[in-house]
Amino acid sequence: VSKQAGRNTYSRFSAEWNESNEHSLNVVNGLRHALERGEFLLYYQPQVNMSTGVIVGAEALIRWMHPVRGMVAPGEFIPLSEETGLIVPMGDWVLRTALSHWQRWRSLGMQDLVLSVNLSPKQVLAGGFVEKLAEVLAETGFPPDKLCLEVTEGIAIHDNGLALEVCRGVRELGVHLAIDDFGTGYSSLSALHRFPFTTMKLDRSFISSIGQQDQSETVLKAMLGLARGLHMDVVCEGVESREQWNRLQALGCGVVQGYLVSRPLPVAEFERFVLGSGTAAG
Ligand code: C2E
Ligand code: MG
Ligand code: MG
Ligand code: MG
């Protein structure tokens, strides 16, 4: 039922609940109450500057502590949350909670990190997103250039002009904007060109192919060149081995995120990890 993955134990619904309507209904009912019952939590995964070895950022990743099933990964409930619209209040909660964690990190004496938060296309397109963001930033006094919002290139597919407008609004507030899982979607190049992205997160499929086939490194190099040409920061996702680290460093990648440095950690563990390591992995 549940599988051990390091210190994270995930319960997979699909293992004993078949992919039935009943299953979806149960999950939707559970999700509706999860927010008010405080069953969501945020994990954080560090991001490290390759040339200094210093932790420069963290990505907030939601988890659902289900009262019966245990820890549930987002792949199991984000799609249903999007279908039902629950993603909007959930996304508000994620943003507010992550900002308040960051404020505590500062009070603990941590160096300011760039905090990355994932956005679903539904949230972006729900209306009033930029106003809501501006309000939260003003209320909390959060420095906008320490926040990075991640959207996938799918955002451009739905686009009727609104997505672009929201992305521009986010940039006008001084918040960074990342294209997540870059290279896996359809509209990669046109989205890059049209949207005001500051950061490219290279999908881990490109990193996992390092050392596997000759062609992969050619593609990787081209992507890094593209980011450089467009003056975008690069974060390489899913770095798991020393070999991958070394190749990426040689290719001039800026920042990495992956199990080699650390898995996503519960917030208290994340704090200990950062405070205990002036530098990491380098
Ligand atoms: P993502 O934004 O691309 O996040 C990175 C995912 O890769 C995370 O999975 C992380 O645990 C995993 N990962 C990091 N390093 C490695 C590695 O070295 N190897 C491997 N195999 N995996 C690695 P996670 O936490 O299960 O999240 C999955 C996706 O769920 C995220 O992909 C994101 O699209 C979505 N998600 C997570 N939190 C939120 C949220 O608060 N809001 C929204 N809208 N989506 C979220
Ligand atoms: Mg992400
Ligand atoms: Mg990603
Ligand atoms: Mg992803």
UniProtKB/TrEMBL annotation:
<protein>
    <submittedName>
        <fullName>Bifunctional diguanylate cyclase/phosphodiesterase</fullName>
    </submittedName>
</protein>
<feature type="domain" description="EAL">
    <location>
        <begin position="24"/>
        <end position="278"/>
    </location>
</feature>
